[in-house]
Amino acid sequence: QVRFVESGGGLVQRGGSLTLSCDASGIVFSRQSMGWYRQSPGKQRDLVAGITVDNRTVYYGDSVKGRFTIARDNAKHSVYLQMNDLEPQDTGVYYCNYYFGPALMPPNWGQGTQVTVSS
After folding, report:
1. Are strands 113-118 and 10-13 parallel, antiparallel or unpaired?
2. Distance (Å, whole) CA 86 – CA 76
3. How far apart are CA 62 and CA 108, in angstroms?
4. 73 pairs with which residues across the strands?
5. What torsion do the CA atoms of 67, 3, 40, 68 make, to the nearest 10 degrees?
6. What is the pLDDT of residues 63-106, one digit of tens each?
7. Which residues on neighbouring strands pair with residue 19, listed in sequence order?
């Protein structure tokens, strides 16, 4: 059974930082490109960042470029999202999942982790 378990969310002030973690199981993690997605209140779920199996190709959404960093540890079956200089518009539920490129969304989702940025 495929599982993605996100953690590390919380409440932070504008300008603060958080690091999200995602532990994957039930997949051959080293062969899967992975991504972080965000669903903000009243908005559709969007791709925030993606990373390929060999770390050679990394994607960032325009709104997070220069502030967020995605990384993976294949030995730990984990993917991370370092978020710096957080803004209120970064508020939302963050999910990790497969990364299929900017235009495609995975069909199934876990619980996610809530990030709230106060002004």
Report:
1. parallel
2. 27
3. 24
4. 78
5. 0
6. 999 999 999 999 999 999 999 999 999 999 999 999 999 889 99
7. 82
42 contact partners, CB below 8 Å, separation of at least 6: none
Task: Label the pairing between strands 45-51 and 113-118.
Answer: unpaired
Cβ-contact 72, 34 below 8 angstroms: yes
User: Per residue in 7-45, pLDDT tens?
Assistant: 999 999 999 999 999 999 999 999 999 999 999 999 999
Q: CA distances (Å), 14 to each of 20, 63, 86, 94, 105, in order? A: 17, 15, 5, 17, 29
Q: State the residue for tokens 């990790």.
A: 96
For β-strands 113-118 and 92-98, DSSP reports them as: antiparallel
